[in-house]
Design a protein that fits this description.
30% of the residues lie in helices and 33% in strands. It is α+β, with helices and mostly antiparallel strands. It is built from 2 helices and 4 strands, in the order βαββαβ. It starts with 10 loop residues before the first strand and ends with a strand.
């Protein structure tokens, strides 16, 4: 985990979430982050498709108030069945 002394809160933070390509995957990831961090603007979300089109990388920039909030979001993301990796 990130030491709060190294990363000051509140701050802007980017979650990177990888999963299999699925039409609803991006919206599910956005909903998980929004549930803990508040509304996520569409221009704060970037979607990249893997070279062969099988996977997606969703990057979401959001404002966090604490390390605990960040860890809760990571926990919620990891609990999602379609999430393969979180950075």
């Amino acid at each position: 985990m990130i030491d709060e002394g190294v990363r000051g809160f509140p701050c802007f933070y980017t979650f990177k979430v990888f999963g299999r390509r699925d039409d609803a995957f991006c919206e599910r990831v956005r909903a998980v982050v929004a549930a803990r961090a508040g509304a996520v603007a569409l221009d704060s979300v970037r979607v990249r498709t893997s070279e062969h089109g099988k996977y997606l990388c969703i990057s979401i920039l959001t404002h966090l108030h604490s390390r605990d909030q960040m860890e809760l979001i990571y926990g919620d993301l990891r609990a999602e069945q379609d999430v393969l990796l979180c950075l």
